[in-house]
Amino acid sequence: MTHPKITVVGAGNVGATCALWAAARDLGDVVLVDIVDGLAAGKALDLQQTAPIMGFAHGITGTTDYEATAGSDLAIVTAGLARKPGMSRDDLLIKNAEIVSGIIKELVSASPDVILLVVSNPVDAMTSLAHRAGGLRTRRVVGMAGVLDSARMRTFIAEAADVSPKDVQAYVLGGHGDTMVPLVRHSQIGGVPLAARLSAEQIEGIVERTRGGGAEIVGLLKTGSAFYAPAAAAVTMAQSILRDERRVLPSAAYCDAEYGVGGYFVGVPARLGTGGVMEVLEFDLNADERAAFNSSVAHVKALVEKLAELGY
After folding, report:
1. Which member of 3, 58, 131, 176 is catalytic?
2. Omega cis (within 30) before 122
């Protein structure tokens, strides 16, 4: 029986944790790649030795050589600079564009049928760059952001309402940054609208904390950024694709007529299954939500246009 093959590029905190979650869920054989000699190999060996303890059966290998990634079904791209205190995700644009464009060309050369799942920031712009650099169909390229942002919002709602996060539903759309759009009107606690359980002040606080969720962690860590939740979000998306679960997950997916975006990758609800993005679902947005979403999309467009001006 042929196992799915998953490449994770970048053996830093996010990438290594992606490899851990993917292995723990037995999604397939994992190849961890990093430019630093010995880093991916060492972490892969360490992870492989958890197999008898954790009970997973697939292999984990580490390398600096993209030839080892040949035949990958899906690649999670985490490589790039992490944020430091005082930095926005946009501050990473140019340096990470240089890194990501080279990675994508290597991946697609080794695995022409790969599905690309981009985590590197600023993720909406990097996902667009990955599409152009890889020359793949738009449905085979997707970015991770909304699952993470929505999880943060769900966490903060659960804390405020003193309920299990399992019973909180929330969606965050738009770009992964300060302009993201937490959809309060479409968020619920066990099917009950937020306004029935929380005050307007509590809800506004949750919205603002969601937008600043990544910066809050960067400020606490001081020398790095979040990695447990981003990795869990990416692997949840990978699992839906590889196992054809067809889950509807907020993802940086290509939208043209959808939401009137006009040909950009932005955070929207997407059905993920075999082949990648199977469908983009459209919320019925009111005037305020539409204005916020359009503003977020405009910010993503500006980043993509800046990349284009620089030749990416």
Report:
1. 176
2. yes
Q: Could you give the dihedral angle defined by the CA atoms of residues 271, 266, 309 and 15, in that order, rounded to the nearest 10 degrees?
A: -70
CA angle 213, 218, 223 (to 5 degrees): 165
Residue pair 72/44 in contact by the 8 Å Cβ criterion:
no
Token pair recorded at residue 70:
């040949």
Q: Catalytic residue at 58?
A: no
Number of Cβ atoms within 10 Å of the Cβ of 130: 28
Dihedral (Cα; 294, 104, 243, 63), 10-degree rounding = -140
Statement: residue 1 has pLDDT above 60: no
pLDDT(84) > 70: no
Domain 5-143: which CATH number of 3.10.310.10, 3.40.50.720, 3.30.450.20, 3.10.20.70? 3.40.50.720
Number of Cβ atoms within 10 Å of the Cβ of 81? 15
pLDDT digits (tens, 9 = 90+) for 281-298: 999 999 999 999 999 999
Alpha helices, DSSP H, located in the chain: 13-24, 39-48, 51-54, 93-110, 123-134, 146-161, 200-211, 213-221, 228-242, 287-309
Kindly list the domain boundaries of the chain, sorted by start residue.
5-143
